[in-house]
Amino acid sequence: MGSRRVLLAKPRGYCAGVDRAVQTVERALEVYGAPVYVRKQIVHNAHVVRRLESLGAVFVEEADEVPVGATCVLSAHGVAPTVYDEAAARSLRVIDATCPLVTKVHVEARRFAEDDYDILLIGHEGHEEVVGTTGEAPAHIRLVDGVADVSAVSVRDPSRVAYLSQTTLSVDETNSVVDALRTRFPLLQGPPSDDICYATQNRQTAVKEIAASSELVLVVGSRNSSNSVRLVEVARDAGAAAAYLVDDASQIDADWLSGVETVGVTSGASVPEDLVADVLNWLALRGYGDVTEVNAAEEHLLFALPQELRRDLRAAP
Questions:
Q1: How do residues 177-212 score in pLDDT, each as one tens digit?
Q2: Could you list the active site residues?
Q3: Mean pLDDT calculated for residue range 257-277
Q4: Are 33 and 290 in contact (CB under 8 A)?
């Protein structure tokens, strides 16, 4: 073998919305004490969920599983308005950890619905974010899950059609869907700014930069993480001979390294940095100790904690 090396993508890992959501559960446990209930996984990462469970968080699927009057944190992916109604009916103390960039999409959905547009929501059926956004205007929203769905889309008035998108999609794939929709509906309206979040775009740009020079790309992330799955797809499309999604170093197959001189490494937006460090250590033990960080963008965005939690933190002794 020649010079074995690792190209480490930057940015990677936690985005501002994930950081806010995880901190929300941690601080809620400090202020209110355990247990704090969380509807759905706070973020899509198995390690994060297990750590929060060890601190006293209890994850449930629906609000009706939370004891009356208890504290309930809503996940970063957003919820439909009916969930707030269910929580109110059970007198729950609700802490809303919805990512502000998802909230932006919800606001856009309500605005287009109020103007009586048919809304074409680009996303993956069943994803929590799609379920939540659809709940904002179910009579107006139709899901478009890829270019293949475009030809079957039916609208009431082709002059009053708008599109929105799930925030964690592939940028290139979403642009292809939008182009196909514009071909069918030339008067198609869009959001004032991209719905795909800055972190998703930056991580995809970074993985493109390392993929073209890597025989193998390892993406650290859980399989239910949409943005992590997209990173694998983007890496393959950008030239990596192979790309795999791994929850942690234990899932790496040493056979993947056969004939590989350059390994690209990145992580999804809900992955803590210690998991990436473990992967780098695993690779170093196998001769890949030369690590070069490839910086595609700088990120400085921070989101404040939910206002209801900030209020109670100020009041805490």
A1: 999 999 999 999 999 888 889 999 999 999 999 999
A2: 129
A3: 97
A4: no
Inter-residue contact 98 to 42 (CB < 8 Å)? no
Q: Give the pair of three-digit tokens for residue 161.
A: 């059609």
- Structural contact between residues 22 and 107, judged by C-beta atoms closer than 8 angstroms: no
H or E segment and range at residue 48: helix 46-55
pLDDT tens-place string over residues 105-120: 999 999 999 999 999 9
- Give percent of the chain with pLDDT exceeding 90: 96
Residue whose C-alpha is closest to residue 273's, from 116, 48, 111, 112 = 48
Tokens standing for 73? 């944190």
The answer to whether the Cα torsion of 122, 128, 134, 138 is positive or negative is: positive
Query: What is the distance between the alpha carbons of residues 55 and 87, in angstroms, rounded to a whole number?
Result: 23
Structure tokens at 306: 């939910």
DSSP conformational letter for 217: E
**H or E element, residue 82:** helix 81-89
* All residues at 6 or more sequence positions from 111 whose CB lies less than 8 Å from its CB, including other chains: none
